[in-house]
TrEMBL record:
It comes from Pocillopora meandrina. Residues 42-186 form the DZIP3-like HEPN domain. It comes from the Eukaryota. PANTHER family: SLR5058 PROTEIN. This is DZIP3-like HEPN domain-containing protein. Pfam families: HEPN_DZIP3.
Length: 207
């Protein structure tokens, strides 16, 4: 007996999931980058990293920073280092360890209280939402109710971090057409970043 054809709703739900992945991969990463850059301006970034190399070496020894990320922090030409090559995981590591931020009361790995609108809390929210959205990876789908809830929460977080101009970019992304190849790309990227985060947790548990 032939299997039933996919329904329109399942296609919509898959696109919902992919769109959330893209929101976090593209705009979420940029918001973290725009949070880090004013604290450690690009022109001086290589100096800051060199001054904090012992701290970063310690994180590398604990395998919180992997060899690929280390190469991006300390390229062959030191002043060529750029946050544009840093992924979400590396940006979060730097924000937590080199920027003087104090963890939210709920910690870096949990959803902060709704009343906590600090930058630290919003950095933690980006990670929380990434993990929450990735929790739908097995079925690669998010229904409209959950999609709208996630989108609004993530939008508010990224606008606070990156500024009001982020609002228009996020609204445009919500309406933008996504082809299947693009959907697969963003789903895969978000999943890879979640695996990196899980690896970090495993290393910390072994220490």
């Amino acid at each position: 007996m032939a299997s039933a054809a996919p329904t329109a709703s399942s296609t919509k739900e898959t696109t919902n999931y992919a769109r959330l992945c893209r929101l976090l991969v593209d705009i979420g990463t940029q918001a973290l980058r725009d949070t880090l850059n004013p604290l450690h301006p690009p022109a001086n970034l290589y100096t800051v990293l060199a001054e904090n190399e012992p701290t970063l070496q310690s994180l590398k020894a604990k395998r919180i920073i992997n060899p690929t990320q280390w190469g991006k922090l300390f390229p062959a030409i030191p002043n060529s280092v750029s946050t544009h090559s840093f992924d979400t995981t590396l940006l979060m590591i730097l924000l937590r360890n080199l920027c003087g931020f104090t963890a939210p009361l709920t910690g870096w790995d949990a959803l902060p209280a709704v009343t906590d609108l600090s930058r630290e809390a919003d950095i933690a929210r980006v990670k929380y939402f990434r993990n929450t959205v990735n929790g739908h990876a097995e079925n690669a789908s998010v229904d409209d109710v959950k999609f709208n809830e996630y989108w609004l929460d993530i939008r508010d977080t990224l606008v606070r971090l990156g500024g009001v101009t982020y609002g228009a970019a996020i609204d445009d992304l919500r309406k933008e057409c996504m082809d299947p190849e693009a959907e697969d790309h963003y789903m895969e990227l978000l999943g890879e970043w979640k695996k990196d985060e899980d690896n970090i947790k495993d290393q910390l548990n072994e220490i």
